[in-house]
Amino acid sequence: ISKNKSVMKSQQIPVYLSAYHATRSPCDRMILTILHHYESNGQPVNEYKPYVFGDSAANHYAVRKNRTASLWAHPTPNQVLNLFEKDIIERTIRNFPVMQKMHYDYELPANIDLTNSEQSIKTVFKRLSEEGLFKQRNIKDNEGVIGDFILRIKYEE
């Protein structure tokens, strides 16, 4: 994104907000960095206020897309507050990392060759776990690896 700003599209902002789960996981930190980059480069991030994220955002922005731009189409404060989950808010308040720096930078290793038949998704994720991106569990197939990776990103704190 930083090398080719033409790939930044405002339509991607709701997708990023829907994928963001406000954890300290590498994935969420990367999404937050991307959104910050969008905002600092003039993308209309403010159009998506109130900022709703996670599964609630997917529903909120999908419904909002079908509405008109009139004042009546904007959500009420109660509708927005109903999108938040109490346990996530409580956990965030208790564990919010006030001193954590905003900057997050992660690059995939350049020597991963997915065209090689010996390199499966399982092997790639094993290498990423060895680098400390996430903890590894024994998974038998590629589909299980992807499912496990998605769940870890979603629920990692």
UniProtKB/TrEMBL annotation:
Domain of life (superkingdom): Eukaryota
Record-level GO BP terms: maturation of 5.8S rRNA from tricistronic rRNA transcript (SSU-rRNA, 5.8S rRNA, LSU-rRNA); maturation of LSU-rRNA from tricistronic rRNA transcript (SSU-rRNA, 5.8S rRNA, LSU-rRNA)
Annotated InterPro entries: URB1
Entry GO terms, CC: nucleolus
Protein name listed in UniProt: Uncharacterized protein
Organism: Pectinophora gossypiella (Cotton pink bollworm)
